[in-house]
UniProtKB/TrEMBL annotation:
Role noted for this protein: E3 ubiquitin-protein ligase that mediates ubiquitination and subsequent proteasomal degradation of target proteins. E3 ubiquitin ligases accept ubiquitin from an E2 ubiquitin-conjugating enzyme in the form of a thioester and then directly transfers the ubiquitin to targeted substrates. It probably triggers the ubiquitin-mediated degradation of different substrates.
Single GO molecular function: zinc ion binding
Entries under InterPro entries matching the protein: SINL_plant (IPR044286), Znf_RING/FYVE/PHD (IPR013083), Znf_SIAH (IPR013010)
Claim: Metal-binding is one of the keywords in the record: yes
Alphabetical UniProt keywords: Metal-binding, Zinc, Zinc-finger
One Gene Ontology term from the biological process aspect of the record: protein ubiquitination
The name this protein goes by in its record: SIAH-type domain-containing protein
Species whose genome carries this gene: Eragrostis curvula (weeping love grass)
Domain SIAH-type: 75-134
Length: 279
């Protein structure tokens, strides 16, 4: 066998099918983490779960290291569970699959427009927002202020401004609703993400929203808050969000009718590891 032939044999892969429960730990019920062991009762457990299993199984006095499962769970590569929504990660190892899916930015979310049933990854929703709803999309950078026209106040179909960060293509929606306490307008910002809970590789953000008065000597309205992540299921502009900017009519008095009200937005990344870990 010459060298070229040998290389092609070494690099070929097979995709066997197994019942996934075969690779679940009897104790923690999650994906087996090597090194793996079997008890005398034949139960497969993670190396870190031996003590837990011993409390419920009479066969757990003796454990045998099991090399077959060890190598499979250590070496097997799986496509991401969200590949149908655009994730092309093909090299997720079995034991890392749960961590990858917790951080995968292709996990699907809902289109929040009233009556719309689109359900796909945030990146594909951006194309949908543009094509199906004509919502404006603006590319922004971490730490750099951007100016947007105030979205129309009202139900979602009337307008939302979509922001996409250049750095890791995170998707944010800026929306405006009438304040329940009078004539003010509330502007909110949310991250469209199914798995935004703090976890390794999941970036977290804070944002600052502010509006300058057209008149000299009037303080701007300004607020800074940590950005919430939502899969947008059942979301509506009028629902109470964690934080929002209140823009009073007084602040805007003096603006001529045809001058659009501009909102300033700045999004900063506040944690979640380096962007190389964000799949
Ligand atoms: Zn376990
Ligand atoms: Zn057992
Ligand atoms: Zn993925
Ligand atoms: Zn839609």
């Amino acid at each position: 066998m010459d060298a070229a032939e040998k290389t092609s044999v070494d690099e070929s892969q097979i995709s066997p099918m197994f019942d996934v429960s075969r690779f679940h730990c009897r104790a923690c019920l999650g994906a087996l983490k090597p090194p793996t062991f079997t008890c005398e009762g034949g139960h497969l457990v993670c190396g870190t779960c031996l003590d837990d299993h011993a409390q419920v199984c009479t066969g757990a006095d003796v454990y045998i290291a099991c090399s077959d499962e060890h190598f499979i769970v250590r070496d097997a590569n799986l496509p991401c569970f969200f590949s149908e929504f655009g994730c092309n990660s093909r090299s997720v190892t079995y034991k890392a699959a749960a961590d990858h899916e917790r951080a995968c930015q292709w996990a699907p979310c809902y289109c929040p427009a009233l009556g719309c049933e689109a359900f796909t990854s945030p990146a594909r929703l951006v194309d949908h927002f543009r094509a199906a709803h004509a919502w404006p999309v603006t590319e922004v950078s971490h730490g750099k202020p951007s100016q947007l026209a105030m979205p129309p106040v009202g139900p979602l179909r009337d307008g939302v401004h979509v922001l996409v960060t250049k750095e890791e293509q995170s998707v944010f929606l800026v929306s405006a609703s009438a304040s329940p306490f009078g004539a003010a307008t509330e502007v909110s910002l949310v991250c469209v993400r199914a798995n935004g809970d703090p976890a390794p590789g999941v970036p977290q953000f804070k944002c600052r929203l502010w509006v300058e008065s057209p008149r000299a000597g009037v303080d701007p309205a300004s607020v800074t808050f940590p950005v919430e992540s939502k899969d947008m299921s059942g979301w509506s502009v009028a629902a109470k969000h964690g934080s929002f900017l209140t823009v009073t009519p007084d602040l805007l008095r003096g603006a001529s009718g045809d001058t659009p009200v501009l909102i300033n937005v700045r999004i900063d990344r506040i944690g979640g590891g380096s962007s190389c870990c964000f799949y």
